[in-house]
Amino acid sequence: MRQQANNVELPKVKRVKNSWDGKVINYLLNHPSKRSSPELILEALSSYWLVEALEGKVSDEEFRKACCAAAENLLKKLASIQRMSGLNFNTMTSVPSLELPVETTTQSMRSQVFQQQENEDDEEDDWNLNLQPTQEMLAANQILEQQ
User: Fold this and answer.
1) How many CB atoms lie within 10 A of CB 79?
2) What does the alpha-carbon distance between residue 143 and residue 24 come to, in Å, rounded to a whole number?
3) Kind and range of the H or E element at 3?
4) Each residue of 133-147: pLDDT tens digit?
């Protein structure tokens, strides 16, 4: 990542065209909405990583707004995946495991990070936070149940 004055920039990303990552890049470059690929990529990145990026760095009110916006975007995407795949996430207790070919070392590294996160999540399961869903989350749940 490069930083110039008040700007930050991600480095250029290249992937093998027929890999899953390559197909995603190609899809974004030719997206039906005609939105620019950097705009689409930043929207996806922000939905996924915004909460972690802002934690402890903004006011509680701004953090809550960011959490709601990220959750709303991710729930919309989940509804879209459910519609396209025919899977019913409301009745699933776990994600079905798939045997996928390892395309790159990066995927192997992602797998290791995911395994580490799972182990950390297991340790966090002992916490009883008694979290209540937001109005946005309840609305998204209703949308998912109707489909």
Assistant:
1) 17
2) 26
3) strand 2-4
4) 666 667 777 776 765
Residue 140: closest CA among 82, 76, 47, 86? 76
- The pair of structure tokens assigned to 147 is 């489909």
Q: Are 28 and 18 in contact (CB under 8 A)?
A: no
pTM for the model? 0.59
Contact (Cβ atoms closer than 8 angstroms) between residue 75 and residue 137:
yes
Which of 101, 100, 139, 97 is CA-nearest to residue 118?
Answer: 97
Looking at residue 51, its amino acid is V
CB 137 within 8 A of CB 78: no
Whose tokens are 């045997």? That residue is 99
Q: What is the pLDDT of residues 96-144, one digit of tens each?
A: 665 555 444 445 445 544 555 554 455 444 444 455 666 666 777 777 6
Distance CA 117, CA 114 (A): 5
